[in-house]
Amino acid sequence: MAAPMAVIRAGVAFILAAGAIGARSQLRMGYYDEVCPAAERIVGDYVRQHVGRVPTVAAALLRLHYHDCFVRGCDASILLNSTGGGGAAEKDAPPSMTLRGFDFIDRVKGLVEEACPGVVSCADVLALAARDAVATIGGPAWRVPTGRRDGTVSSMQEALAEIPSPTMSFPELAALFAAKGLAARDLVWLSGAHTIGIAHCSSFADRLYGNAGAGSNGNGTDPPPLDAAYAANLRERKCRTAGDAAVEMDPGSHLTFDLGYYRAVLKHRGLLRSDAALITDAAARADIAGLVGSPQEVFFQVFARSMARLSMVQVKTGSEGEIRRNCAVVNSH
């Protein structure tokens, strides 16, 4: 049964990827050069000024962009508010409740609107801001061709179904990525964003306290447990209070874009089950071990390549969608 399922998933991924080629081809570098030549400079200047002062914003913007692209593609649907008649939006789904950066994107969009009303999409602002934020803290930069249009639909139920869960196994995660036209290696490289991330104690409590069967997927792909000494330290310090404390996923260098996260995963110190799941797959484990033994520039290159691919997932272009004037609501026509 495994082989036919793999064939089916591969076929689905091929169909989705082929369908996206036309839209991707309409994105291009310098899309706004004639209609709003200052657009990318406005985004970049604001990001560098504010992320330079508060570097934790970089992780927030990167995660916001990631969540956006996994539901209906990179169309800024994550930024839409819920409406009374239209149901709950993506941002109100449990996986998105801890997202930050909405106000930041609103402020950048406001500046761009002042310069060029109704021209630059929220989707492009978010894609550019995520890239510039990572570069501002010393991480890699990647090419962001522009020309995305904004979506007009945002569904909490779709977010629940399509956002990768921190409790998923490697095959489950790889299947979700394949459905977006992304390879298993993209999953491995994009997980490297956790080098600047945080996780709340509640999201890995089963790994801290060893609840029997907690989060078990029952298919033999359960990840290895947390390193015992590390788990004990977290129980005694970070996760001992009644509140849901945040823990750095790359302790010691969580504001530096480096290989620390992958080193932690190999030492069984990846906080989430999905982090630990990376080393349950032989090819993924070999890729991580090879990366850790390579110059950091190699990580920057593969991460940038996968981010460029992610930022073009199921984009809307041409006459699709709209250019929202306010990122939180659709235009009234």
TrEMBL record:
This is Peroxidase 1. Substrate binds at P164. Residues 26-331 form the Plant heme peroxidase family profile domain. One of its GO terms (molecular function) is lactoperoxidase activity. Keywords: Calcium, Disulfide bond, Glycoprotein, Heme, Hydrogen peroxide, Iron, Metal-binding, Oxidoreductase, Peroxidase, Secreted, Signal. Binds 1 heme b (iron(II)-protoporphyrin IX) group per subunit. It comes from Zizania palustris (Northern wild rice). Heme b binds at H194. The active site is at H67.
